[in-house]
Request: fold
Amino acid sequence: MSTDRTFTPRDLNASEYVRELFQPPDNAAILVRNRSTGHTVQTISKAETIASPGFQTWLTNQSASGYDVFMGMNPIKEGAFSRTKGNIKDIRHVYLDLDKKGDQALEAIRNSPEVPPPNFVLDTSPGKHQVVWKVSGFSQDEAESLLHSLANKFGGDLAATDSTRVLRLPGFPNHKLPEEFIVQARQESDAVYTLRDFTIDEDSPETPRHFGEAQERRRTVPSEHKSQSEHDWAYAKRALARGDDPEIVIQRITDYRSDDKDDPSYYARHTVMKARADLQQRSTVTKEQSIPSPIIDHTH
Reply:
Protein backbone atom coordinates (compact mmCIF):
# COMPACT_ATOMS: atom_id res chain seq x y z
CA MET A 1 0.00 0.00 0.00
CA SER A 2 1.27 3.46 -0.88
CA THR A 3 -0.33 6.57 0.56
CA ASP A 4 0.15 10.14 1.72
CA ARG A 5 -0.56 10.13 5.45
CA THR A 6 -1.46 13.84 5.35
CA PHE A 7 -4.37 13.32 2.95
CA THR A 8 -7.46 15.39 3.72
CA PRO A 9 -10.84 14.04 2.50
CA ARG A 10 -12.55 16.18 -0.12
CA ASP A 11 -15.61 16.31 -2.34
CA LEU A 12 -15.04 15.77 -6.07
CA ASN A 13 -16.85 16.99 -9.14
CA ALA A 14 -17.00 14.85 -12.28
CA SER A 15 -13.77 16.15 -13.84
CA GLU A 16 -11.83 15.81 -10.59
CA TYR A 17 -13.14 12.28 -10.10
CA VAL A 18 -12.06 11.24 -13.60
CA ARG A 19 -8.58 12.67 -13.03
CA GLU A 20 -8.27 10.77 -9.75
CA LEU A 21 -9.36 7.48 -11.33
CA PHE A 22 -7.16 7.61 -14.42
CA GLN A 23 -3.99 9.02 -15.93
CA PRO A 24 -4.57 11.61 -18.71
CA PRO A 25 -3.62 9.26 -21.61
CA ASP A 26 -5.72 6.34 -20.31
CA ASN A 27 -8.66 5.25 -22.43
CA ALA A 28 -11.88 5.07 -20.42
CA ALA A 29 -15.48 4.18 -21.19
CA ILE A 30 -18.39 6.58 -20.74
CA LEU A 31 -21.92 5.26 -21.01
CA VAL A 32 -25.14 7.27 -21.02
CA ARG A 33 -28.50 5.53 -20.81
CA ASN A 34 -32.05 6.82 -21.05
CA ARG A 35 -34.21 4.69 -18.79
CA SER A 36 -37.42 5.85 -20.45
CA THR A 37 -36.45 4.98 -24.02
CA GLY A 38 -33.77 2.37 -23.38
CA HIS A 39 -31.40 4.25 -25.66
CA THR A 40 -27.74 3.80 -24.71
CA VAL A 41 -24.60 5.47 -26.04
CA GLN A 42 -21.09 4.35 -25.14
CA THR A 43 -17.89 6.13 -26.09
CA ILE A 44 -14.23 5.33 -25.43
CA SER A 45 -12.11 8.46 -24.92
CA LYS A 46 -8.93 9.62 -23.26
CA ALA A 47 -9.39 10.48 -19.60
CA GLU A 48 -8.06 13.98 -20.23
CA THR A 49 -10.76 14.42 -22.90
CA ILE A 50 -13.53 13.15 -20.63
CA ALA A 51 -12.44 15.57 -17.90
CA SER A 52 -12.35 18.51 -20.30
CA PRO A 53 -15.02 21.28 -20.21
CA GLY A 54 -16.29 20.41 -23.68
CA PHE A 55 -16.93 16.77 -22.88
CA GLN A 56 -18.49 17.67 -19.54
CA THR A 57 -20.85 20.03 -21.34
CA TRP A 58 -21.90 17.17 -23.64
CA LEU A 59 -22.58 14.97 -20.59
CA THR A 60 -24.57 17.76 -18.96
CA ASN A 61 -26.73 18.05 -22.07
CA GLN A 62 -27.27 14.29 -22.17
CA SER A 63 -28.24 14.32 -18.50
CA ALA A 64 -30.68 17.18 -19.09
CA SER A 65 -32.32 15.00 -21.77
CA GLY A 66 -32.98 12.24 -19.24
CA TYR A 67 -29.81 10.17 -19.55
CA ASP A 68 -28.00 8.63 -16.57
CA VAL A 69 -24.21 8.97 -16.75
CA PHE A 70 -21.81 6.12 -15.97
CA MET A 71 -18.09 5.47 -16.27
CA GLY A 72 -16.08 2.27 -16.65
CA MET A 73 -13.82 1.65 -13.68
CA ASN A 74 -10.84 0.17 -15.51
CA PRO A 75 -8.87 1.51 -18.50
CA ILE A 76 -9.42 0.21 -22.03
CA LYS A 77 -6.66 -1.01 -24.33
CA GLU A 78 -5.39 1.33 -27.02
CA GLY A 79 -7.34 0.88 -30.25
CA ALA A 80 -10.25 -0.95 -28.60
CA PHE A 81 -13.79 0.29 -29.19
CA SER A 82 -15.81 -1.80 -26.75
CA ARG A 83 -15.89 -2.49 -23.02
CA THR A 84 -15.25 -6.24 -23.02
CA LYS A 85 -13.05 -8.20 -20.64
CA GLY A 86 -10.56 -8.81 -23.42
CA ASN A 87 -10.27 -5.06 -23.93
CA ILE A 88 -9.52 -4.20 -20.30
CA LYS A 89 -5.94 -2.92 -20.16
CA ASP A 90 -5.37 -3.56 -16.47
CA ILE A 91 -7.16 -3.51 -13.14
CA ARG A 92 -7.07 -0.13 -11.41
CA HIS A 93 -10.09 -0.37 -9.14
CA VAL A 94 -12.24 -2.76 -7.14
CA TYR A 95 -15.65 -1.61 -5.96
CA LEU A 96 -19.00 -2.32 -4.35
CA ASP A 97 -22.50 -1.21 -5.22
CA LEU A 98 -24.34 -0.98 -1.90
CA ASP A 99 -27.97 -0.92 -2.99
CA LYS A 100 -29.48 -2.56 0.11
CA LYS A 101 -29.01 -1.24 3.64
CA GLY A 102 -26.34 0.98 2.18
CA ASP A 103 -25.63 3.13 5.24
CA GLN A 104 -25.23 0.05 7.43
CA ALA A 105 -22.98 -1.66 4.87
CA LEU A 106 -20.82 1.44 4.45
CA GLU A 107 -20.35 1.67 8.19
CA ALA A 108 -19.36 -2.00 8.29
CA ILE A 109 -16.74 -1.41 5.58
CA ARG A 110 -15.26 1.55 7.43
CA ASN A 111 -15.01 -0.48 10.64
CA SER A 112 -13.80 -3.73 9.08
CA PRO A 113 -10.23 -4.93 9.69
CA GLU A 114 -10.52 -7.11 6.57
CA VAL A 115 -10.59 -4.30 4.00
CA PRO A 116 -8.62 -1.05 3.78
CA PRO A 117 -10.27 2.38 3.88
CA PRO A 118 -12.05 3.17 0.59
CA ASN A 119 -10.58 5.76 -1.74
CA PHE A 120 -13.95 7.02 -2.94
CA VAL A 121 -17.49 6.88 -1.62
CA LEU A 122 -20.31 7.89 -3.97
CA ASP A 123 -23.79 8.68 -2.68
CA THR A 124 -25.99 7.50 -5.54
CA SER A 125 -29.38 7.92 -3.85
CA PRO A 126 -30.63 8.27 -0.28
CA GLY A 127 -29.06 5.45 1.74
CA LYS A 128 -27.30 3.88 -1.27
CA HIS A 129 -23.60 4.10 -2.07
CA GLN A 130 -20.85 2.96 -4.39
CA VAL A 131 -17.45 2.32 -2.81
CA VAL A 132 -14.20 2.30 -4.80
CA TRP A 133 -10.65 1.25 -3.93
CA LYS A 134 -7.61 2.10 -6.08
CA VAL A 135 -5.48 -1.01 -6.62
CA SER A 136 -2.47 -2.33 -8.51
CA GLY A 137 -1.07 -5.76 -9.27
CA PHE A 138 -4.44 -7.52 -9.71
CA SER A 139 -5.27 -9.92 -12.51
CA GLN A 140 -8.86 -9.88 -13.78
CA ASP A 141 -9.57 -13.23 -12.10
CA GLU A 142 -8.20 -12.01 -8.79
CA ALA A 143 -10.18 -8.78 -8.99
CA GLU A 144 -13.47 -10.46 -9.88
CA SER A 145 -13.11 -13.10 -7.18
CA LEU A 146 -12.42 -10.38 -4.64
CA LEU A 147 -15.38 -8.34 -5.92
CA HIS A 148 -17.63 -11.35 -5.47
CA SER A 149 -16.40 -11.89 -1.91
CA LEU A 150 -16.78 -8.22 -1.04
CA ALA A 151 -20.35 -8.28 -2.30
CA ASN A 152 -21.11 -11.38 -0.25
CA LYS A 153 -19.44 -9.98 2.84
CA PHE A 154 -20.99 -6.52 2.85
CA GLY A 155 -24.28 -7.07 1.04
CA GLY A 156 -23.29 -5.51 -2.28
CA ASP A 157 -24.91 -6.10 -5.64
CA LEU A 158 -23.63 -9.43 -6.98
CA ALA A 159 -24.32 -8.30 -10.53
CA ALA A 160 -21.65 -5.59 -10.12
CA THR A 161 -18.71 -7.97 -9.69
CA ASP A 162 -17.11 -7.93 -13.13
CA SER A 163 -14.07 -5.97 -14.30
CA THR A 164 -16.01 -4.21 -17.07
CA ARG A 165 -18.53 -2.65 -14.68
CA VAL A 166 -19.64 0.96 -15.08
CA LEU A 167 -20.52 3.02 -12.00
CA ARG A 168 -22.15 6.40 -11.71
CA LEU A 169 -20.29 9.62 -12.42
CA PRO A 170 -20.73 12.30 -9.73
CA GLY A 171 -22.34 15.63 -10.41
CA PHE A 172 -25.20 14.22 -12.46
CA PRO A 173 -28.73 13.30 -11.32
CA ASN A 174 -29.90 9.75 -10.77
CA HIS A 175 -32.91 9.62 -13.10
CA LYS A 176 -34.00 6.31 -11.59
CA LEU A 177 -35.52 8.24 -8.71
CA PRO A 178 -38.87 10.09 -8.73
CA GLU A 179 -37.22 13.13 -7.12
CA GLU A 180 -33.95 14.62 -8.33
CA PHE A 181 -30.87 13.38 -6.54
CA ILE A 182 -27.42 14.54 -7.63
CA VAL A 183 -24.76 11.85 -7.27
CA GLN A 184 -22.01 13.00 -4.90
CA ALA A 185 -18.42 11.72 -4.62
CA ARG A 186 -16.02 12.05 -1.73
CA GLN A 187 -12.36 11.05 -1.82
CA GLU A 188 -11.33 9.63 1.55
CA SER A 189 -7.85 8.28 0.78
CA ASP A 190 -5.12 8.50 -1.85
CA ALA A 191 -3.71 5.05 -1.08
CA VAL A 192 -3.12 2.44 -3.78
CA TYR A 193 -3.82 -1.04 -2.46
CA THR A 194 -2.55 -4.52 -3.34
CA LEU A 195 -3.97 -8.00 -2.78
CA ARG A 196 -2.36 -8.23 0.63
CA ASP A 197 -4.36 -5.24 1.88
CA PHE A 198 -7.61 -7.23 1.54
CA THR A 199 -7.60 -10.03 4.09
CA ILE A 200 -11.16 -11.12 3.35
CA ASP A 201 -11.06 -14.53 1.65
CA GLU A 202 -12.22 -14.62 -1.94
CA ASP A 203 -15.52 -16.41 -2.40
CA SER A 204 -14.39 -18.00 0.56
CA PRO A 205 -14.57 -21.14 2.43
CA GLU A 206 -15.00 -18.74 5.34
CA THR A 207 -17.04 -15.79 4.22
CA PRO A 208 -20.30 -16.44 2.35
CA ARG A 209 -21.73 -19.10 4.64
CA HIS A 210 -21.45 -16.75 7.59
CA PHE A 211 -24.17 -14.55 6.17
CA GLY A 212 -27.84 -15.42 6.22
CA GLU A 213 -28.74 -14.33 2.71
CA ALA A 214 -25.60 -15.62 1.01
CA GLN A 215 -26.92 -18.98 -0.18
CA GLU A 216 -30.12 -17.54 -1.57
CA ARG A 217 -28.27 -14.70 -3.26
CA ARG A 218 -25.80 -17.08 -4.88
CA ARG A 219 -28.68 -18.84 -6.61
CA THR A 220 -29.65 -15.54 -8.24
CA VAL A 221 -26.24 -14.72 -9.72
CA PRO A 222 -26.49 -14.39 -13.53
CA SER A 223 -25.22 -17.34 -15.56
CA GLU A 224 -22.26 -15.39 -16.97
CA HIS A 225 -20.64 -15.29 -13.54
CA LYS A 226 -17.87 -17.74 -12.67
CA SER A 227 -18.69 -21.17 -11.31
CA GLN A 228 -17.90 -21.96 -7.68
CA SER A 229 -15.05 -24.21 -8.83
CA GLU A 230 -13.48 -21.25 -10.63
CA HIS A 231 -13.85 -19.18 -7.47
CA ASP A 232 -12.26 -21.97 -5.42
CA TRP A 233 -9.33 -21.98 -7.84
CA ALA A 234 -8.91 -18.20 -7.60
CA TYR A 235 -9.20 -18.33 -3.82
CA ALA A 236 -6.53 -21.04 -3.58
CA LYS A 237 -4.11 -19.06 -5.73
CA ARG A 238 -4.60 -15.89 -3.73
CA ALA A 239 -4.29 -17.64 -0.37
CA LEU A 240 -1.11 -19.43 -1.43
CA ALA A 241 0.35 -16.25 -2.95
CA ARG A 242 -0.03 -14.41 0.33
CA GLY A 243 1.70 -17.23 2.21
CA ASP A 244 -1.15 -19.28 3.74
CA ASP A 245 -0.28 -22.86 4.69
CA PRO A 246 -1.48 -25.16 1.84
CA GLU A 247 -2.93 -27.64 4.33
CA ILE A 248 -5.03 -24.89 5.91
CA VAL A 249 -6.25 -23.78 2.48
CA ILE A 250 -7.16 -27.38 1.66
CA GLN A 251 -9.13 -27.70 4.90
CA ARG A 252 -11.02 -24.46 4.27
CA ILE A 253 -12.09 -25.58 0.80
CA THR A 254 -12.93 -29.07 2.09
CA ASP A 255 -15.19 -27.64 4.78
CA TYR A 256 -16.79 -25.18 2.39
CA ARG A 257 -17.59 -27.75 -0.31
CA SER A 258 -18.61 -30.56 2.04
CA ASP A 259 -22.29 -30.21 1.09
CA ASP A 260 -21.87 -30.41 -2.69
CA LYS A 261 -18.86 -32.66 -3.38
CA ASP A 262 -18.78 -36.46 -3.09
CA ASP A 263 -15.15 -36.31 -1.98
CA PRO A 264 -14.52 -32.72 -0.88
CA SER A 265 -11.09 -33.55 0.59
CA TYR A 266 -9.80 -34.94 -2.73
CA TYR A 267 -11.36 -32.02 -4.62
CA ALA A 268 -9.79 -29.46 -2.29
CA ARG A 269 -6.33 -31.04 -2.38
CA HIS A 270 -6.44 -31.33 -6.17
CA THR A 271 -7.47 -27.67 -6.49
CA VAL A 272 -4.77 -26.42 -4.14
CA MET A 273 -2.00 -28.54 -5.69
CA LYS A 274 -2.91 -27.30 -9.18
CA ALA A 275 -2.98 -23.71 -7.92
CA ARG A 276 0.41 -24.21 -6.26
CA ALA A 277 1.91 -25.63 -9.46
CA ASP A 278 0.49 -22.73 -11.48
CA LEU A 279 2.01 -20.18 -9.11
CA GLN A 280 5.38 -21.94 -9.18
CA GLN A 281 5.34 -22.04 -12.98
CA ARG A 282 4.52 -18.34 -13.19
CA SER A 283 7.26 -17.54 -10.71
CA THR A 284 9.78 -19.49 -12.80
CA VAL A 285 8.74 -17.71 -15.99
CA THR A 286 8.99 -14.33 -14.28
CA LYS A 287 12.49 -15.11 -13.00
CA GLU A 288 13.62 -16.29 -16.43
CA GLN A 289 12.27 -13.14 -18.05
CA SER A 290 14.14 -11.00 -15.54
CA ILE A 291 17.55 -12.61 -16.28
CA PRO A 292 19.45 -10.32 -18.64
CA SER A 293 20.83 -11.73 -21.86
CA PRO A 294 24.56 -12.48 -21.72
CA ILE A 295 26.84 -9.84 -23.16
CA ILE A 296 29.23 -11.37 -25.66
CA ASP A 297 32.62 -9.72 -25.84
CA HIS A 298 33.76 -9.62 -29.46
CA THR A 299 37.00 -7.78 -28.71
CA HIS A 300 39.12 -10.94 -28.35
